[in-house]
């Protein structure tokens, strides 16, 4: 598995833990438990930047998701789906060096591991709308 995919998987685990416990303000504590020590690799640094980016911009990310998630609201979504959406939406909106297609594909790959069969279609539809909206196509 490539280092960035592993970083996304670790970041998803941290975001999931924060969401389950509703302890967003304590992101550092969850991060320490799942990403111990100082980052030694670029993958570890990337995982930390993903977590910190989502935590810092969670309101804007959630608003972007909610604006395109027809007939769904965030609390109603499955925890994995919600946090995969947050992770990928942060990449799409705030990581200019990562093409939206890559962020979407990575979310779909993680959904194969952690989601239910319908997860990939659900994520793809929402993330595609977010990417199109960012590019002025939606």
What descriptors fit this protein?
N-utilizing Substance Protein B Homolog, Chain A, 138 residues, 7 helices, mainly alpha, single chain
Protein architecture, described:
With 138 residues, the chain is mostly helical. The protein has a single domain (3-134), classed as NusB-like (N-utilizing Substance Protein B Homolog, Chain A, Orthogonal Bundle), CATH 1.10.940. It is 72% helix and 0% strand. It contains seven helices and no strands. The chain starts with a helix and ends with a helix. The mean pLDDT is 88.
Task: Give a short synopsis of this structure.
By secondary structure, the chain is mainly α. It contains seven helices and no strands. The chain has one domain: NusB-like (N-utilizing Substance Protein B Homolog, Chain A), CATH 1.10.940.10.
């Amino acid at each position: 598995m490539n280092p960035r995919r592993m970083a996304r998987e670790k970041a998803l685990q941290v975001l999931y833990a924060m969401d389950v416990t509703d302890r967003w303000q304590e992101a550092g504590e969850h991060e320490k438990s799942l990403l111990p020590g100082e980052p030694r690799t670029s993958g570890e640094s990337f995982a930390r930047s993903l977590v910190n980016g989502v935590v810092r911009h969670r309101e804007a990310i959630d608003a972007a998701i909610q604006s395109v998630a027809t007939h769904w609201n965030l609390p109603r979504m499955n925890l994995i789906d919600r946090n995969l959406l947050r992770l990928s939406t942060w990449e799409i909106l705030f990581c200019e060096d990562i093409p939206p297609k890559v962020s979407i594909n990575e979310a779909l790959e993680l959904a194969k591991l952690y989601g239910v069969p319908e997860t990939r279609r659900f994520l793809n539809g929402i993330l595609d709308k977010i990417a199109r909206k960012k590019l002025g196509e939606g």
